[in-house]
Automatic annotation (TrEMBL):
InterPro entries reported in the protein's UniProt record: p53-like_TF_DNA-bd_sf (IPR008967), STAT (IPR001217), STAT_N_sf (IPR036535), STAT_TF_alpha (IPR013800), STAT_TF_CC (IPR015988), STAT_TF_DNA-bd (IPR013801), STAT_TF_DNA-bd_N (IPR012345), STAT_TF_prot_interaction (IPR013799)
TM helices/strands, residue ranges: none
Protein name: STAT transcription factor protein interaction domain-containing protein
Keywords attached to this entry: Coiled coil, Cytoplasm, DNA-binding, Nucleus, Phosphoprotein, SH2 domain, Transcription, Transcription regulation
Record lineage: Eukaryota, Metazoa, Chordata, Craniata, Vertebrata
Coiled coil stretches, renumbered: 128-172
PANTHER family, per database record: SIGNAL TRANSDUCER AND ACTIVATOR OF TRANSCRIPTION (PTHR11801)
Main location: cytoplasm
Pfam family, one: STAT_int
Domain STAT transcription factor protein interaction residues, every copy: 6-128
SUPFAM superfamilies in the record: p53-like transcription factors (SSF49417), STAT (SSF47655), Transcription factor STAT-4 N-domain (SSF48092)
Compartment(s) of residence: Cytoplasm; Nucleus
Length: 356
C-alpha cells in the first residue's frame, strides 16, 4: 500500500538509526513480521485496536474479522507484485503463517501493543529533538552572556581610565592651589573652578560606571546560574535517555553539544571572576556565587559515556567509557586524567552508608 500513514512514516525514519536486535524484538518474525507492518501500514493505523484485550472474550469475533482482512490484504499485495517473484512468494508465505499461527484475540492485542510501543518511541524521538532545540537555544543564551562579560570589561577599563584622569586633575588642582598662593591672579577663581568641575565630572562618571558594573556583574551571575541549571537539566535528560536506550528507545549519544556548553559556562565563570578581581570592589556575594557555580559545574561534568552491560557474567570481559566534559578547558595545556573504578554491590553500600 503506497498510502503510508504518519506513524509508520516516522517509524521508518527511526528504524534507520535503531539496532537490528531492537527492531527484531519490536517486530518478531514469527508473529508480527515487519513486512506485515510495512505493506498494511495505512490499513493497520485506521483500525481501532485499542478496544481489544485478552480479558474480553466477546471481542473474539471482531478480532477474527480483522485477522481475516489482514490475511486477504497481504494476499492482494502479494498478487500485485507480479514483477518480483521473490517478494510475492514471501508475502504469500506470511499470509499463510498468519492464518495458521495466530489466535484472533491475541493477534489484535499484539497489534495494539506494537502500535503503542511505536508511539512511545516516536514520543521519545520528539523529546530528543526538543532537547536539541533547547541546547541550541541555550547556546544563543551563552552568546548573550558573553556579550555582557565584554560590556563589563569595557566599563571596567573606562573606570580605570577615569580614575587616572581623576588623579591627574586632582594633582593639577593641588599644584594650581600652591602656585596661586604664591602668585595671586585674577584668573585663579575661574581656572580653579574649571578644574574642580572636571574633577566632579570624572568622579560622577566613575561612580556611575561602578554602579553599572556591579549591576551587570550581579545580573551576569544570575544569568549564568540559569544557563548552568539548564545545562544540568539537559545533562540529566541525556543520562536518562541513555538509560532508556538499553531497552530500545532511540538515543543520540553525541556528547559534543553538551561538552561545548559546559566549556563555555566555565569560560564565562572564569571571565567573571577575573573581572571581579580587576574591579577592586568588595563584592563577596558575587564571588561566593561564582565559586558555588564553579564547584557544581566541575562535579557534574563527569559522565559515563558508554555504560557497561546491565548484567555482567563472572569472568567475562566488557567495556565502558568515562568522559570529563570540561577536559583541557579546566587546566589549559594539561589534559585532565580521568580514572574510574568499578566496585561491587557491597562496596557501593559501604560508600553509601559512609556518605550518609
Amino acid at each position: 500500500n503506497s498510502l503510508i500513514m504518519a506513524q509508520w512514516r516516522e517509524m521508518t525514519f527511526l528504524l534507520n538509526i535503531m539496532d537490528d536486535q531492537t527492531i527484531s524484538s519490536l517486530y518478531p518474525a514469527a508473529t508480527f513480521p515487519i513486512e506485515f507492518r510495512h505493506y498494511l501500514a495505512s490499513w493497520i493505523e485506521e483500525q481501532r485496536w485499542e478496544d481489544f484485550s485478552l480479558e474480553n472474550v466477546e471481542q473474539e469475533v471482531p478480532a477474527q474479522t480483522l485477522l481475516n482482512q489482514s490475511i486477504h490484504l497481504l494476499q492482494t499485495v502479494a498478487q500485485g507484485n507480479v514483477n518480483n517473484v521473490v517478494e510475492r512468494m514471501k508475502l504469500m508465505q506470511l499470509s499463510k503463517n498468519l492464518l495458521n499461527s495466530q489466535r484472533p484475540l491475541e493477534f489484535a492485542v499484539m497489534v495494539k501493543d506494537v502500535l503503542r510501543k511505536e508511539k512511545i518511541i516516536i514520543s521519545e524521538k520528539h523529546k530528543l529533538e526538543t532537547m536539541q532545540q533547547k541546547v541550541n537555544s541555550d547556546e544563543e543564551d551563552i552568546k548573550k552572556l558573553t556579550k555582557k562579560v565584554a560590556l563589563i570589561m569595557e566599563y571596567r577599563k573606562k573606570m580605570h581610565q577615569l580614575e587616572e584622569e581623576f588623579n591627574w586633575e586632582k594633582q593639577n588642582y593641588e599644584c594650581m592651589q600652591a602656585i596661586y598662593q604664591q602668585n595671586p591672579s585674577d584668573m585663579k577663581d575661574r581656572e580653579m573652578k574649571a578644574v574642580m568641575n572636571k574633577i566632579k565630572t570624572h568622579e560622577f562618571e566613575r561612580h556611575r560606571l561602578s554602579m553599572e558594573c556591579k549591576h551587570l556583574l550581579r545580573d551576569s551571575v544570575e544569568h549564568l546560574k540559569k544557563s548552568q541549571d539548564n545545562f544540568l537539566s539537559a545533562l540529566n535528560a541525556w543520562r536518562w535517555e541513555q538509560h532508556k536506550s538499553i531497552i530500545g528507545y532511540p538515543f543520540s549519544d553525541d556528547l559534543n553539544p553538551l561538552q561545548s556548553w559546559s566549556e563555555q559556562l566555565l569560560v564565562v565563570n572564569s571571565s567573571l571572576r577575573q573581572e571581579l578581581m580587576l574591579v577592586h570592589e568588595p563584592l563577596s556575594d558575587i564571588e561566593e556565587g561564582l565559586k558555588a557555580l564553579l564547584k557544581v559545574l566541575i562535579e557534574s561534568s563527569f559522565v559515563v559515556e558508554l555504560q557497561p552491560p546491565q548484567v555482567i557474567k563472572t569472568q567475562s570481559k566488557f567495556s565502558a567509557t568515562v568522559r570529563y566534559l570540561l577536559g583541557e578547558t579546566l587546566i589549559p595545556g594539561k589534559p585532565v586524567t580521568v580514572k574510574a573504578q568499578i566496585i561491587n554491590e557491597l562496596q557501593a553500600r559501604s560508600m553509601g552508608a559512609a556518605l550518609g
